[in-house]
Amino acid sequence: MLPVVRPLLLALSVVFSVPALAAKPPAKAPAKAAPVEPTLAHNLDEANAARLAAMIERYHRETGNTIKLVRLEKGDKPATLNLLSRYQTSEVLSQPKDFVPLHAMMSKAGAPLSLSLPEVLRPGVTDARGRVVALPVLYSTPVLFYNKNALRKAGLDPEVPPKTWFEMQGYLDKLQSAGYDCPYASSWPVWVHIDNVSAVSGVPATDAKGGLKFNALPQVKHVAMMATWSKARYFRQYGQGNEASQRFREGQCAMLTTDSREYADFQDARGVELGVAPLPYHDDVYGGRRPALADGPAVWVGAGKPAAEYKAAARFVSFLLSPEIQIELVRNHGGLPLTEAARRAALSSLLQDGRQALDAAYASLQGKADSADLRVSNIDGTRIIADEELAAVWADQKPAKAALDTAVVRGNSVLGAKPALKKAQPF
């Protein structure tokens, strides 16, 4: 028996004398990857920045994903996503290598982009094949806001706003007689009185090759009419942005032309019962009223980001396109719905003022457009020049024809020096 026992004892002694070989410590679990947080750059004002932050918080709460909001400073390289206003379009056009088309990002991220934009929302954000290169999240069109209380005070029917510019002059005279020092004001003068008055009159401000041509007879007559209103103090000009909107919000101005999406900012206007109507038109122009233009902030994709960032950014774009968020963008920010289904849903959920604004916007956009895609107000150089020349007319320093001729010559010189700016979008 002994010869058998000794080998067994020897084997056991070897096993128990080398514990390191018998039981290795468990391997460490791989480190959990940090969540990818793409950036969204913007330069919204304080109120709209707060609304955007609330939407990002909702995105995080509902999906578990997040996105970092950063301020968009001039000269910065684009973030993963960039919410750019119409006045920043020239930055995209002049630096196309800094951006990539939205449809390309979504495709590489494996995220569907089944978005068929209405015709009025396509200029500047779709390419020649109809593919979406940027997302028009807060597009709007100019409308006429008016204070129904002011119309009542002037003895006017608050439910019957003026349809034409000629009719509007009579309203302004009565509003002035009723004690209003500012019967009418306008925000974004180039966008409203050059781009949109031209489009509604059927004489586009730009041609198919990207040249400026807003010095034809209908535009000259309109700007000259505004000059007479300025002399009569029917029309007051407060700046080249949306400075006039604050005067309307405070009840100082009785009527205002500005972006339809600003109704979201007028909900707490002092002493103002809000009325909204389509942008007036000139009824003596051949062919009748044509559609107004839609434009506004869009989301552009920055180039050169890691694939993981694009994948995370694509999830946020899909979130923006969900029916619930489309309704929120209309109700809280005043943007035009991106689809017909979203429009119907938004109309069914809006309060009265919001519905009026959306109805007026769509009424302004109805009809067959014959306008070029390029907007004078989208290019820094051309907008600044046009603003200067308009201000000179309305200050009685220049006649309308001379000012518009000069604006066209100066503006075409700017575009000639930078041909990339003649395109509505860079891809």
Automatic annotation (TrEMBL):
Main location: periplasm
Keyword Metal-binding carried by entry: no
UniProt xrefs under InterPro entries: Bact_solute-bd_prot1 (IPR050490), SBP (IPR006059)
Key words of the record: Signal, Transport
Coiled-coil ranges (or none): none
Keyword Zinc: no
Subcellular location: Periplasm
Span of the signal peptide: 1-22
Protein family (similarity comment): Belongs to the bacterial solute-binding protein 1 family.
Name the UniProt record assigns to this protein: sn-glycerol-3-phosphate-binding periplasmic protein UgpB
Organism the protein comes from: Azonexus fungiphilus
